Input
Amino acid sequence: MKTFFYIFFAVFAAFTTSSTGETADQIVNKANLASYYQGNDGRASVSMVITDSQGRERTREFIILRMDVEDGKDQKFYVYFHEPADVRKMVYMVWKHVGKDDDRWLYLPAMDLVNRIAAGDKRSSFAGSNFVYEDVSGRGVEEDIHEVTDTTDKHYKIRNTPKDKQNVEFLYYDVWIDKSNFLPVKAEYYDKQGDKYRTVEALEIETIQGHPTVIKSKVTDLNTGGNTVSNFSGIKYEVGLKDDIFTERYLKRAPRQYLK
Amino acid sequence: MKNIILLPAIISCFLSVYSLSEEAEPQKNVFEALKEKIPVHGFIEYGYGSRITRDDTQNHDTLYNEARLRLDYNHAWDNVEVQFKGDAVYDGFQGEALFDWRETYALVLPADWTEAKLGRQILTWGTGDYLFINDMFPKDWISFFIGRDDEYLKAPSNSVKLSFFPDIFDINMVWTPKFTPDEYVTGQRLSYYNPLTQELSGSRNQIYAEDPKGDIENGEFALRIYKNIKGYEFAGYAYKGFFKRPEGFNTRLWKNYFPKLAVYGGSVRGNVFGGIGNAEFGYYDSIEDRKGDNPLIENSSARGLLGYTREIVKDFSAGIQWYFEYMKNYDEYDETYLNEPAQKDRFRQLLTLRLTRYAMMQNLIVSLFTFYSPTDNDAYLRPSVTYKYNDHLSFSVGGNIFLKKYDHTFFGQLEDNTNIYIRARYSF
Output
């Protein structure tokens, strides 16, 4: 029965073409490449401000390095924390896989300890912010069924419904994708009761080395009233990161030349 | 000497902070301003812990009462980095001030394929969670049992670590010229079971163990070969040195001592069934008692563990481990060991369970770690709650609860040391 619905949705999605003739899947694939796979690699300094419902602020500062193993497929991420003080020098590393569980590591410098983290909790908070792990490394496009629900002059509106409802907290989410550069500019998440509870917005976009890039984004939790704003700076593509940066060696000994 | 160099730097920093505060930056506190001047980080911490029951072998119930100022500084040139990390401590239990050097090392990066770390450093490898088979680097069990932060379980050693990175695997070699034992229970702060007197002993009957002579051949060597194959981490290990706790008794000196030990082992870790699985094995070669017929020296043994960790529901994870020690030449031990009630099992086993719950945007962490030995009939529970009030200030409360059936078992002997603690830390 379940399988039948998948096939039904897949066929439905494939035939729901946009005004320019692109299918939902094609649009989503382009958006995925535009937001997570620009260049062969990249680095950025990220400053997050987490504001709770009472207006109290917390900050996170980290450097993120990213390397594509294959465009649209596997990637490696290296996240080095500067702030807050209690997580300083911690490193979070991901080998993202399409179609199977990611490999994830956390390095705790005070104990010289390399820990593995179970892949399951991709929808939990990233570093105590309103972003989830999946917002940082991207959600596998094959995990959702995509339909174009609206097309305007500027945007495609895509509805994304998870194939496996057990592992996510949302019923579906809508994404507005900019037609000119295929960057997702807004996402709205709906909970199992069908109520909107979470938004993600791209607040500022800048073209860096020819790649339109989100340099400021915001997540708002409509249930708690909290939000997180991320500012990206020092963005660089085609850094020339080698595969061995994303190994245990550099978890234990930060590659300083890329973290300045 | 290093203190003398650091002192003017610290004073000048405070002075410049003072001058800064006269300018128009009222919201910056002293630490933020200090950090901009020179990149010194650290924390100020106060912790207090006490037994919850009366221990007849000890004079007082307080186990932990100390203030710490952590200073952490590093500097990097192109191929060399230096790191200083240490705590100025006032230890109210001992009634003394001391400086606890955690790290003082130079990292040398001569070529792409090799690195060297020289000096006082914290070292860790292996896959166990609070269980160590091939990690023979020093542990501070006192810190662990009285409620200091987890990081203090790993004690520093003055070592040379050489690493080589040929394409096929990573090689790490650690030489510790002077044997560095664990900080083990001696009776001074925590009471223990004394097999000689066959009773629980405390501050009036402490263990004074004889260290190996400081000769160059009495250093420790540790080796690891590591390879990551598609996310599965394989490692092989070797160690030559001494038991890290005084598992031998010298009748001539009438003192405990550290018998010679070699360890050989391996481990694997990776994704299994939506979680993380790990397996580790080690053979402990008790060089001075290979036949196992000397009851005053720990026998050789095979040790292993299997572990599995996964998220149960969002923000709630669980990890289980099964651990064993299988004593070699048990019959010889059985025949020669005279203190029958305290006799060990041939096949000692431990089960551990770690439960961790994150709440309030990960600012509240509730955790319970349990050791339970079905063969020793004892248990050790480590409940803790940590609340991060803001990016700087955090509070922790927790306990170290020991349960026993017999006096002599590993955790059971510590029952009278059952304690609760609180800690407050300001990080900068």
User: Anything to note?
Assistant: Chain A has one domain: 2-258. The two ends of chain A are 54 Å apart (CA to CA). DSSP finds four helices and 13 strands in chain A.
